[in-house]
Input
Amino acid sequence: MPVEEITASASGTWTLGDRTVHRMGFGSMRLTVDPDRARAVRVLRRAVDLGVNHIDTAAFYVSPGGPLRVGAGSPRYATELIREALAPYPDDLVIATKVGPSFDEANRHRELGPAELRREVEENLRRLGRDHLDVVNLRIVRKAGHDSVAERFAALAELRDAGLIRHLGLSNVRVDHLDEVRDIAPVVCVQNAYALDAGRWADELLRVCGERGIAFVPFFAIAGAGREAGTGGDHDEAVRAVAHAHGATPHQIRLAWTLHQGPHVLGIPGTGDPTHLVQNVAAGAIRLTAGDLARLG
Output
């Protein structure tokens, strides 16, 4: 008897803004690394076939260069790959994008000011081929002391009022940033680096998001401290032991642990490998025991 394929529905659902999404989504950053555009298109279509209806992206996800600082050949934008693979878009698909950082020709990073954010929103619209964006996250660089996000968030709220954006989120923030924008516009999600063994200062932020009904969307949940470089094979003993007990990979256990941190936590693991995609989606079906969670820490 053939084994039934595990889809994203196994991860459960969450209401993101006014749309219901499966908690296991897909992150598009690493799609840009492979010069084979057809392979990236196949991975995206396969993700949707597996029930993924929440895709994370950004106009600055591009190779060569971009946040990964790798790649060769002509520019490959994640947003354009998504359009090529999935337009016309399924009715239930939510595409969340980010604005805020910019990379110049020398690959130097800087933050965009309020007046520049509309241009970034319009670039996302153009590359995705949309007349509105489902979710836009304001991505910031945290600084010591008071680093206000209000002016930039208010600029995005104006674009929301104009109909270019449906919902707003924040990325790479603290609880005080959430508090600061509370009276400007609703925040539907927070996207931060967070993993079993990295970014745990955000445990409080995750808890507060749950109390306020805000989705918490970790990136680098698999890579952890490896961040853009990705994860190596040096998983600790606890992760390997729990993986063995569940007949799973260590990567799958890291994803399962992430989803177990609360019903409002959404996964967006990214890959350009179709085999890894299937494994990532299947991780949404893993149910860790209290003993597993205690062992993992």
User: Anything to note?
Assistant: The longest helix spans residues 114-128. The first strand starts at residue 13 and ends at 16.
